[in-house]
Amino acid sequence: MERFSFKIIVSVILMFMCIFSFTVYAVTYESSNINEFEDIILKELNLTNANFNITYYGEYEDIENIMKTILKKDPYLRCTITSIKWSTSSTINGVYNVNIKATHILSASKRNETDKKIDDILSDIIKPNISDDEKVKVVHDYIVKNSKYDTSSVFYSDYDLLTEGKSVCNGYALLTYNMLKKLNIPVEFVFGTSNSQSHVWNMVKLGEYWFHLDTTWNDPVPDRDNTSSYNYYMLTDEEITKDHVIEENQNLPLTKIKYYNYLSNLSKSKTNLKNYVYTNLLIETGLNIYDEENTAITIEELSRILKEKIKNHPSNISIRFSESITNDNVNSAMSSLFKIDSISEISYDQITKDNTGDYKVLNLYIKYKEIPDSITTNLSDKIYNTATKIDLNVYANYGTRKINITKDVMIHPYDSNFLNISGDSLTFNNCGTHNLIFEFEGKKAVVNITALNAKGFEYITDKKPDNSINVMVFNKYIDFSSINQWPFIDNNRTLVPIRAVFEVLNCNVEWNDQNNSAVVQHDSTKIVISPNSQIAYVNGIAKKLDAPAKLVNNRIMVPLRFISESINKTVIWDELNKTILIY
Distance between CA atoms of 256 and 245, rounded to whole angstroms? Predict the structure, then answer.
């Protein structure tokens, strides 16, 4: 996977003169020491400036040393500049005049256009309140599914990937870098070789750990439409260097944990309220092959695992098996899958060893005689009462035919703190909102489920209220007109009517006359707060508020962020729509 190579062209012209005139088109800067000199160059190059001058008061050797190594100081520039040349002249006083000319892969206007495209894409594909792990996967999948590797080696940039749909590895690494940077996820470039060709990829930090991510090598050649590979997704140094060579002297962070172990630990954490997210990531990246339930020691176990997995009519199956299982055993186990009449073809990748080296990996790709046009359910966008029991039905649609697949459809791991699915019925454990993912024969359906308790219904509306500040809970607006008291900002802090907001959040809200205080009860959390006080008590522990609670129109108004975060809700301020989002 070849990336472009950059050139440093050194043009040295030494002249002694009393007066020196720069080219009129280039901006001139002054630097009194080598650090200033280097900072000016890096700043100008990052601004995509192609021609500028520096008057330097120092030694010529300093200039030469900086210019020969400048691109290695900034990996981003190494990916975005194809050549840099410089010339220098000196006055009789030993002052050096340096002219620097750089060739960027993108002009400043195209760089701005690319950034705008990236902003638009991220606003569309990144949903509120998702984890950094999910953000990285969404970005990875977008890049891989919407790009093709440029085998002609004509296109090199992230602009090319977004406009032409293709690039060499340099464009993949740049787009990955720029997208993740905008999401505030730590990311670096890694330079090296693969298949004896120059190559560049990324490292990404999730939580406390760094991982290698090669979006180029995860995009198959020839291209498979709408298909992602995860063979080079979040790898350790040991895993990536099996077929990548990392260039020396890059000062890269070290990897400390395998991504499977990292996700597995989070999926099993008892303190993590969203452990289902990490279970899902294990499935979607194929790393769940390392789970014991997906590992076969005997041919009988291999056959059993395949039969269990085929029940949900997946488009692909991945499992590990012991080296004692022969290829004939594998073929025999695969042939049994054809007992499902709807299967037309089964193919598989070349069998390779897993990352431990102790097992082999079988990746099956399954085609069906007739792929459904879509998957639908009887679930709707309406708000459900948490006391409701729903009869769940899922259908595969083939033209005008609709087949009930409730017993066969795969339901991705979901938030069991919010809802439960048993057979063909769905019940709620709490109020909230959640995306349910159904999958059958390569088709997916995502359904958003929202449920509130009976008290919360009177405050909810789909229409945005005409107020200067609004509140959305579980993607629905709160209408405060029934209590005639709206949120307001006091000393840069948003205060909201306590009962309306927190009854929607499934809290029990009461007024204690004896203590002149409001009491908010949510599961095992009890919050006590009094008007005109900047102290609240959470399970008996005093907490200082950003702003004191107030009594307005006989309604107690409280700082929204403190209460919401005290019951493990995420609060986001949407500046554009002047709306507070609570998840």
Answer: 19
